[in-house]
Design goal:
alpha+beta; OB fold (Dihydrolipoamide Acetyltransferase, E2P); five-stranded mixed beta sheet; about 20% strand; globular
């Protein structure tokens, strides 16, 4: 009888452990171990332009170091930018360039004019063409990784994007100025006074 009593007490003591082990796993319990996608750098192309301008404005003896810092800060980063798709610049998958700069986005005069290159396959090239087909002037929203960056005082700036994903496409807005600086107002010529006009006609 004592043996049976001790066995019953032992089983009773193990009951909470058995119950806890039999609980169903709560939804989301393993979420912390799920792999995450690459993080997106929140900086846009105008931040890169600012960095390049600052490097260019540095004293000659510091420019190489400053440009090196720009490359370190940007190369390999995954970004999400809006760029302008122009069919003539992206006629083939192996030769696809886009317009990076909307000049209306900056109050300062932008002197950078580089055209990023897309490293894409035929399927992505076809998707860009298809999504832009309804738009007369197409601005695309993309996520991509900066796989190559030429930043130097001696060479033109060049940017290459790999791992390109197309998020969306839209029409260019009337307030935007992709790839071209807004025209500066033409100075008005004041009419000559009557006396000066008469003298001019002689």
């Amino acid at each position: 009888m004592n043996d049976l009593r001790r066995t019953a007490l032992a089983l009773f003591g193990m009951l909470p452990l058995l119950v806890s082990c039999s609980k169903p796993e709560q939804p989301g319990a393993a979420a912390s171990t799920a792999p995450r996608g690459p993080s997106i750098d929140s900086r846009n192309q105008y931040a890169l332009i600012d960095d390049l301008d600052e490097a260019l404005a540095a004293p000659a003896g510091e420019q190489a170091r400053r440009y090196g810092e720009v490359k370190s800060a940007w190369l390999g980063r995954r970004v999400r930018w809006e760029v302008r798709y122009v069919p003539a610049l992206c006629a083939r998958a192996d030769s696809c360039f886009v317009v990076a700069v909307d000049y209306s986005q900056s109050k300062k005069r932008i002197i950078q004019g580089w055209l990023p290159r897309f490293e894409i396959d035929a399927a992505m090239h076809e998707k860009i063409q298809k999504d832009c087909a309804p738009h007369l002037a197409c601005v695309i929203d993309v996520e991509a990784k900066i796989t190559r960056l030429v930043a130097s005082a001696d060479l033109p700036t060049a940017v290459t994007f790999g791992e390109v994903s197309l998020i969306g496409a839209r029409d260019e807005k009337s307030t935007e100025s992709w790839g071209r600086a807004p025209a500066e107002p033409v100075a008005q010529v004041k009419p000559l006074p009557n006396a000066a006009l008469a003298l001019h006609k002689r």
